[in-house]
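re: the backbone from monday

yeah here it is again, tokenized this time
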């Protein structure tokens, strides 16, 4: 068998359905922007955490009021789940997502295992983010603005990678044609906003002048 024929057959297995090549570039953009944003906020949070460790009276830059209070959250055990500040996890993972996103945006064809890695990583990040959301709303009773920016980025990256992998049939099923999937992401964000408003109704009312 000719080598070129073999390569063509391998490419055909991993090629997305018609019309999804542009979608791959879109996923690359989401990964690049989300990864860069996540890395920046992780760095800001880590710097504030280190400053707080050095000076217990330090007020983090994202402590705005009793609800939007990074300082409150930074003093909890949930802020260091693995024994070190959570932002360290972000600094180790967000740049990887950004680098892979830049490759995809530039037209590079990632191997199947790289897409599986992205799926595993963004899924783990999404689950961790939602655990943090529950902890913030139910247990701690405060919100971290920079953390919420990271929430938005992680959810968008998970959603985009999952949709792309489903379209390309990389998750074990046949390639799927998914339309208007952006509505699902918007609904996801809306549920989180509703949960925040329901948890802090007086604070939310004050934001809109009620």
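seq for it, each position gets an aa:
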């Amino acid at each position: 068998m000719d080598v070129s024929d073999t390569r063509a057959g391998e490419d055909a297995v991993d090629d997305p359905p018609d019309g999804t090549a542009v979608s791959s570039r879109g996923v690359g953009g989401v990964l690049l922007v989300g990864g860069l944003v996540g890395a920046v906020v992780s760095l800001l949070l880590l710097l504030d955490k280190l400053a707080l460790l050095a000076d217990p009276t330090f007020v983090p830059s994202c402590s705005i009021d009793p609800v939007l209070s990074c300082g409150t959250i930074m003093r909890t055990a949930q802020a260091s789940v693995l024994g070190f500040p959570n932002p360290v996890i972000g600094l180790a993972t967000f740049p990887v997502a950004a680098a892979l996103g830049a490759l995809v945006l530039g037209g590079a064809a990632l191997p199947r295992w790289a897409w599986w890695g992205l799926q595993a990583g963004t899924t783990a990040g999404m689950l961790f983010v939602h655990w943090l959301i529950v902890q913030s709303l139910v247990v701690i009773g405060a919100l971290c603005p920079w953390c919420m920016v990271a929430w938005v980025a992680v959810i968008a990256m998970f959603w985009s990678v999952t949709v792309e992998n489903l379209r390309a049939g990389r998750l074990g099923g046949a390639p799927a044609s998914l339309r208007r999937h952006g509505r699902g992401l918007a609904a996801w964000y809306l549920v989180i906003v509703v949960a925040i408003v329901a948890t802090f109704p007086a604070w939310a009312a004050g934001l809109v002048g009620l």
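Residues 44 and 146 are 8 Å apart (CA to CA). The domain at 18-207 is CATH 1.20.1440.130 (de novo design (two linked rop proteins)).
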